[in-house]
From TrEMBL, chains A, B:
InterPro entries recorded: 2-isopropylmalate_synth_dimer (IPR013709), AIPM/Hcit_synth_CS (IPR002034), Aldolase_TIM (IPR013785), Citramal_synthase (IPR005675), LeuA/HCS_post-cat (IPR054691), LeuA_allosteric_dom_sf (IPR036230), PYR_CT (IPR000891)
Annotated source species: Demequina lignilytica
A single MF term (Gene Ontology): 2-isopropylmalate synthase activity
UniProt record similarity statement: Belongs to the alpha-IPM synthase/homocitrate synthase family.
Catalytic activity line of the entry: pyruvate + acetyl-CoA + H2O = (3R)-citramalate + CoA + H(+)
Name this polypeptide is given: Citramalate synthase
Keyword Repeat applies: no
Pathway note: Amino-acid biosynthesis; L-isoleucine biosynthesis; 2-oxobutanoate from pyruvate: step 1/3
Top EC class of this enzyme: transferase
Record-level GO BP terms: isoleucine biosynthetic process; L-leucine biosynthetic process
Gene3D superfamilies per the UniProt record, alphabetical: 1.10.238.260, 3.30.160.270, Aldolase class I (3.20.20.70)
């Protein structure tokens, strides 16, 4: 099996977009498609032109503005209506009009779905499949048949399910994709059924898995082991209910664990960055525990292991994180103990092994802070500041006297509001600054006021840009009384360096103020600004 | 295989707590343990008494204060030190002192780990295993041997890996648990290796899987199919890196898909509630796409399917959500189309099928709102209000003139802050209220001011309690300039009814104000308060 090529078919833009809370605009799809091409998938399914107006627009725009290096473009649609010719069906014609070289036709292969949902006879359904495929193939398109509910259908009536596939083959479909639409299969079911189908046709077989029993990745692997050479899935495992098969995990398993050929170019080595960029566009928070590309996927916390990892990192990871563009990380945490803090310090350029008293004080501060709700796992910069304070290696850049923020409804319109912040501080050799900042929210206003006050003394401030701002309510049982944790990501636009800081407090504005001031402080430190408080 | 009993061994409190960002206090563990017992797991592993002071305290407290209906309690620890007797090793003695009836001993079964991490010879490692097990069994405890890195070890040196297991068996271990510690196996690897081990010993075999290749659930199922009758895992799939096997998904697959006996009592039917309650305690946001128990696990959005689901719901779900205490949900979304909005309306008691113009206006408003960042997937109450406004079935309870919030640093201490809100509104037959509320943050202060103003006209307000408050920054690329979405969960403490509302705006306080006022409005509506604006 090593050396076999498996076609990776991405349906993030169509089936993935069915996920709860996801809502992709045409612009979002235009931004995601080139990333999928860069990832090296063989096929990008763009949507359902003709049925979804946004998708019709997207296909026209792709034809005009995008060209792909690796991927071919596919349009998704349905078989023709009952009792009419394929060529006269406007939905089928819209698939042709999309100009996509590949057309993926969803077809009923479970007799119950044909009879109850589509309300056609089993024979008419088979005719609909064969004729629609033949029509599109006659027009020069490659056709992939998505046999919907195939596995459930096979378990209910195996002969009918296979006849539906064979109707597609007879029409000239290149690929018969077996869909576990309800996602309930386990790998041994898939092995048994795909093995049977493999013996009944010579067409390329594909697998389309959903994760309802937690086995979408394993089911995709089982199908390939039984002879499928086409796998469908979505980046980040997006999709309706529990999601589709996570395409990066499947491709990484195929390539790294089985020596097969899946993604084109060096897409796999870029997959962590690409998966995260796509989650920025979809606005779905990335799942830290996601296999291969998750932020935690190669993060070690256990004190027991931390010391052993120093000896031999490869004994503690299932593969090298670089293969998927991810990194091994040591986490600073109460559970980690001295070994991790020592390692983390060394990563940052501080040798603590000969300073047991500092190590002890840092550990105590970390424990204490974590008990209050801080997390340094995700805020390296705040941890470095903590370490520097304990080492006496933190300069003073400014001194804040006080600050305040006001948010009020617009006159006459309680549904609109604006914000204003005032800050008083000393910087630049004791000079006092009283500045005001406006903003579309309290933290934004505070950010503006703080920057205005500091810009005179530290022009470097202008280089720092806040790129992410995350708010987490820590104790959900208390509603608006809860403790808030704010994580801020900042980038130095000159050096490209990026860092994260954390603030915690019962008051969201106060927590933001802490993360904000830490962030600017850290930026000045790394820009080697001369302290002049 | 149907009818076989599989022992479900929970390690949420030990291995699960290794997850990035998780930090369990003794009180958290005391709250989680009874939930695990209610779930019906056979064994609860509490931690590592003797090595982790918090765990020693937890075991003492469990012995004093808890009794379990279903579960036995297990202490986790290591084999004895090299070159000393088991009985003289303080770490081993601490395991006895914990009074746990089951002791789970982690042991090296990969020769490389014995030699490089533990720095002992292969033979000494085997002696450490056999003697420590024998000592604990002699003291009347059941011993589970956790053969760490077993699968990697087997692939490197199968004979040594199996000798490590047999040393445990010789010492009297009841269970030999094969650990995929680095989580890199695929199900066919597991099938092959467990089948071989099964032929070499008569002891009970167990499986401990991690999810690094996305196959933890499938690997656990493969091990059971090959003869294991003990599975380890964590609720919600918690754990280091990509997490441990999700114990509820494994148990549900065993029971529902394979007819085996896994959880005791009716734990499976309570698993959704229990999994969510545990995530409240761990403070790790639940993953909506989690198999079986996720909020999205039985949620349907596709317009294509929505109309067919009306015909026959069982054709569109892999199992009945009630079996795991979850619910089928129809999601309102731009992609869903008329059929879903009609169904959702019917769920709420509004018949829209004969009002196409209302249906159209509601669809337009939903589309428009979703484009701005609203989501009604997670905010049924806001959707019902939108529907009622379009139907002209929303009363007026009050009229707000204006509001404002001020947050300022404490005098002399810029690191502390407090908040104060003023609201001006009319309610109670045109009576004007000007009220002030203090709070530990701007939203909390606004909540207090609003309630004070409304309480006179609507005493029902006192029954409503905010139980969750979620803030989501929608466009991460803009930092503090981004659009904010606020979701608020409120409960009526008299009826127990719970509802969620959404607010969106560039200003977090403004978005919160919207969700807050919608929430109180909806509560009054459901409490059938008489409008008196």
């Amino acid at each position: 099996m090593a050396g076999t090529t498996v076609e990776v078919y991405d349906t993030t833009l169509r089936d993935g977009a069915q996920q709860e809370g996801m809502n992709l605009s045409v612009a979002d799809k235009m931004a995601i498609a080139p990333l999928l091409d860069e990832l090296g998938v063989g096929v990008i399914e763009g949507g359902w032109p003709g049925a979804v107006p946004k998708d019709t627009e997207f296909f026209a725009l792709v034809n005009k503005e995008l060209s792909f290096r690796h991927a071919q473009f596919a349009a998704f649609g349905m078989t023709r209506r009952a009792g009419a010719s394929a060529g006269s069906d406007p939905q089928v014609r819209a698939l042709l009009d999309s100009e996509a070289p590949i057309i993926t036709l969803v077809a009923k292969s479970d007799i119950r779905h044909a009879e109850r949902a589509l309300r056609v006879s089993g024979d008419e359904n088979l005719a609909m499949i064969e004729e629609t495929v033949a029509f599109l193939v006659g027009e020069g398109r490659r056709v992939v048949l998505d046999a919907e509910h195939f596995f459930d259908g096979y378990r209910y009536d195996p002969e009918y399910a296979i006849r539906a596939l064979l109707a597609g083959e007879a029409g000239g479909a290149s690929t018969l994709c077996l869909c576990d639409t309800n996602g309930g299969m386990l790998p041994d079911d898939v092995t048994r059924i795909v093995t049977d189908v493999r013996a009944r046709t010579t067409a390329q077989l594909g697998m389309h898995a959903h994760n309802d029993s937690g086995c979408a990745v394993a089911n995709s692997m089982a199908a390939v082991a039984a002879g499928a050479t086409h796998v469908q899935g979505c980046v980040n495992g997006y999709g309706e209910r529990t999601g589709n098969a996570d395409l990066v995990a499947v491709a990484a398993n195929l390539e790294i664990k089985r020596g097969m050929i899946a993604l084109k170019g060096d897409g796999l080595a870029e997959s962590t960055r690409i998966a995260h960029t796509i989650s920025e566009i979809t606005n779905i928070a990335p799942f830290a525990r996601q296999p291969y590309v998750g932020a935690s996927a190669f993060a070690h916390k256990a004190g027991l292991h931390a010391s052993a990892i120093k000896v031999d990192p490869d004994l503690y990871q299932h593969t090298q994180p670089e293969l998927v563009g991810n990194d091994m990380r040591m986490l600073v945490s109460e559970m980690a103990g001295r070994a991790s803090i020592e390692l983390k310090g060394r990563e940052m350029g501080f040798e603590l092994s000969d300073q047991p008293d500092v190590l002890k004080r840092v550990m105590d501060r970390v424990k204490n802070a974590e008990a209050q709700g801080y997390t340094f796992d995700a805020a390296d910069a705040s941890f470095e500041l903590l370490l520097r304070w304990e080492l006496g290696q933190a300069p003073q850049y400014w001194q804040v006297e006080s600050w305040r923020v006001r948010v009020s409804s617009a006159p006459g319109n309680p549904n609109d509001a604006d914000a204003e912040a005032v800050i008083k501080l000393r910087a630049g050799g004791g000079q006092r600054f009283v500045t005001v900042g406006e903003g579309n929210g309290p933290v934004n206003a505070l950010d503006h006021a703080l920057r205005t006050a500091l810009a005179g003394a530290y022009p470097e401030i202008g280089r720092f840009e806040l790129t992410d701002f995350k708010v987490r309510i820590m104790d959900a049982s208390h509603g608006t009384d809860a403790v808030t944790r704010v994580l801020i990501t900042t980038v130095d636009t000159v050096t490209g360096m990026q860092w994260r800081t954390v603030g915690v407090g019962p008051n969201m504005v106060e927590a933001s103020y802490e993360a904000l001031t830490d962030s600017l402080f850290y930026g000045l430190l790394k820009a080697e600004a001369t302290p002049n408080p």
